């Protein structure tokens, strides 16, 4: 599993938080007793669930010790149960009333079968809400793949690439509809305006260093990382030119929400 750096991830927290807000705005649960956030990351979004449902028991599960350490530090009131675990091995037992999983299932191969099993376990009236990026054909990801494949350590890097780790919105709709009476699936392309102040050398690089590049950086030593990042910077400059208002990075995301029964 990739190592995570909460500080790097937090560079663009406003832009990363918005899809979560858009996702949970479509969850109609009024007073759930228990809520689980799978792949809770560094914690602020899980904490926002506790603010929305103050009576609920909220559990945040993540595989990264660094992300969980940050989450525990943010949760000064100790409101959330933080647990280290692999989403792929998680069992909804006892089943929560709401399952939320934001920007995580793209890291979990075979997640459709997991969703099916979670939906089977969900009680009638329970909610499932997920969001995954749908940008694996975007210039940022194409460039990462090209630079990795041309690298002298391509054999190692290619193993860390994830080609198409998510399904189409239609496929998620089909999976949810098999168990849920109410299904709500949509996609949005956010035109992310990165670094309007012009403070970063390559804001697109800073963005992908927080997420998509994690497994590749894990493979390289420090000097290899430097050269790899320098080449990506050049390629990103050409693909995402700076405008007067910042660097525009379109980012497609896929959302799926279902209510059981
Ligand atoms: C992009 S972050 C999203 C974090 C948070 N949900 C958010 O929206 O800010 C992805 C998170 O998924 C976690 N993750 C990836 N694969 C996982 C797995 N198999 N089991 C548990 N957590 C996983 C990572 O550790 C990371 O914290």
Automatic annotation (TrEMBL):
Keywords annotated in UniProt: Methyltransferase, Transferase
Domain of life: Bacteria
Pfam families according to UniProt: Methyltransf_23
GO molecular function ontology, one term from the record: trans-aconitate 2-methyltransferase activity
GO BP term (any one): methylation
Protein name: Methyltransferase domain-containing protein
Organism the protein comes from: Flexivirga caeni
Lineage: Bacteria, Bacillati, Actinomycetota, Actinomycetes, Micrococcales
């Amino acid at each position: 599993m990739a190592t995570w750096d909460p500080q790097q991830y937090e560079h663009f927290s406003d832009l990363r938080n918005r899809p979560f807000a858009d996702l949970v705005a479509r969850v109609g649960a009024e007073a759930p007793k228990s809520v689980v956030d799978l792949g809770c990351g560094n914690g602020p979004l899980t904490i926002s669930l506790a603010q929305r449902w103050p009576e609920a028991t909220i559990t945040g599960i993540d595989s990264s010790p660094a992300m969980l350490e940050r989450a525990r530090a943010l949760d000064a009131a100790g409101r959330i149960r933080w647990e280290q675990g692999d989403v792929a091995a998680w069992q909804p037992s006892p089943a929560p009333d709401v399952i939320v999983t934001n920007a995580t299932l793209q890291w979990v191969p075979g997640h459709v079968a997991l969703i099916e099993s979670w939906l089977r376990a969900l009680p009638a009236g329970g909610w499932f809400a997920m969001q995954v990026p749908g940008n694996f054909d975007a210039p940022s990801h194409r460039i990462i793949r090209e630079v990795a494949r041309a690298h002298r350590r391509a054999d190692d890097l290619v193993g860390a690439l994830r080609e198409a780790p998510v399904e189409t919105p239609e496929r998620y709709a089909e999976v949810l509809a098999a168990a849920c009476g109410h299904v709500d699936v949509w996609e949005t392309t956010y035109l992310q305006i990165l670094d309007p102040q012009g403070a970063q050398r390559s804001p697109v690089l800073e963005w992908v260093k927080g997420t998509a590049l994690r497994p590749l950086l894990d493979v390289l030593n420090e000097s290899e990382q430097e050269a790899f990042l320098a080449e990506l910077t050049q390629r990103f400059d050409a693909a995402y030119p700076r405008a007067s208002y910042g660097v525009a990075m379109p980012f497609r995301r896929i959302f799926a929400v279902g209510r059981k029964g």
